[in-house]
């Protein structure tokens, strides 16, 4: 059964950068679309980015376009989320998510496997 392990969260000042990593274990990651979801304090979980199995298709929600970049290295079963120009509204728990069904979904309900999450805090 696929398992997802996130790393790379932390605390940064506005304008800073972080790079999140997601390691897929037990099952080769190239069988899955992989993405990232987040949950801000007091809010529901939202899907924010996705990448297709072969890496050819990517998707982002509007608020992160131009600031975040998703990529994957299937040889290493790892997906990355490069986050630049972070703002306080990016604060939250970030989850790596996977889907064996959808090509590159953004809606949180379409993801069927979730990691444990890694915390990101952006404040002055």
What does the secondary structure layout of this molecule look like, with pairings?
Blueprint: E1 3-7, E2 10-12, E3 18-25, E4 33-39, E5 46-51, E6 58-60, E7 68-73, E8 78-83, E9 92-99, E10 113-114, E11 118-122
Parallel strand pairs: 2-11
Antiparallel strand pairs: 1-3, 3-8, 4-5, 4-9, 5-6, 7-8, 9-10, 9-11
Radius of gyration: 13 Å
Query: From N to C, what is the helix and strand string?
Result: EEEEEEEEEEE
Count all strands and give the number: 11
* Helix percentage range: under 10%
> Uncertain spans, ≥5 residues at pLDDT below 50?
none
Strand content: over 45%
Give the CA-based shape: globular
From the N-terminal CA to the C-terminal CA, the straight-line distance is 40 Å
SS field, number of helical segments: 0
Q: Major beta sheet, specifics?
A: 7 strands, mixed
Briefly note the structural class of the backbone. Answer: mainly beta
Q: Compute the average pLDDT.
A: 95
What is the compact description of this entry?
The chain has 124 residues and is an all-beta fold.
Written overview of the protein:
The protein is mainly beta. The protein contains no helices and 11 strands. The strands form 2 sheets. Strands 2, 4, 5, 6, 9, 10 and 11 form a 7-stranded mixed beta sheet that branches. A hairpin with a 6-residue loop joins strand 4 (33-39) and strand 5. The mean pLDDT is 95.
């Amino acid at each position: 059964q696929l398992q997802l392990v996130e790393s790379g969260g932390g605390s940064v000042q506005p304008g800073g950068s972080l790079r999140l990593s997601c390691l897929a274990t037990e099952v080769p990651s190239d069988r899955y679309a992989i993405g990232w979801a987040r949950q801000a304090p007091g809010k529901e979980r939202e899907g924010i980015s996705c990448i297709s199995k072969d890496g050819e298709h990517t998707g982002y929600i509007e608020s992160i376009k131009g600031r975040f970049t998703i990529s994957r290295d299937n040889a290493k079963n790892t997906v990355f989320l490069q986050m630049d120009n972070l703002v306080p509204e990016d604060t939250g728990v970030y989850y790596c998510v996977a889907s064996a069904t959808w090509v590159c979904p953004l809606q949180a309900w379409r993801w069927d496997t979730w990691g444990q999450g890694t915390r990101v805090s952006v404040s002055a």
